Fold this protein.
Amino acid sequence: MEERQRVEKDLREFEESIHEVEKAKPPKELHENLQRARNYAKDAKYFLEKGDLFTAWGTINYAHGVLDAVRRIMGLECFGALE
């Protein structure tokens, strides 16, 4: 898979994952972490548009990491977890 396509796929998966978290009504104390994850995803989109695929890939991975931590706290399976 081409690097750009990989970042785009990761961005789509992030949106699916955060939508699932929001649907589960996260507690207020996790809202700051959710915003941090959203900010990393926003940064990834910015760097993708600029053609900086390395930084885009890094920031979307940070976004997934923060979001996975929130998911675990909420008792949700990490998105894309292996069975």
About this structure: The helical segments are 3-23, 31-50, 53-73. The longest helix spans residues 3-23. Residues 46 and 52 are 9 Å apart (CA to CA). The two ends are 23 Å apart (CA to CA).
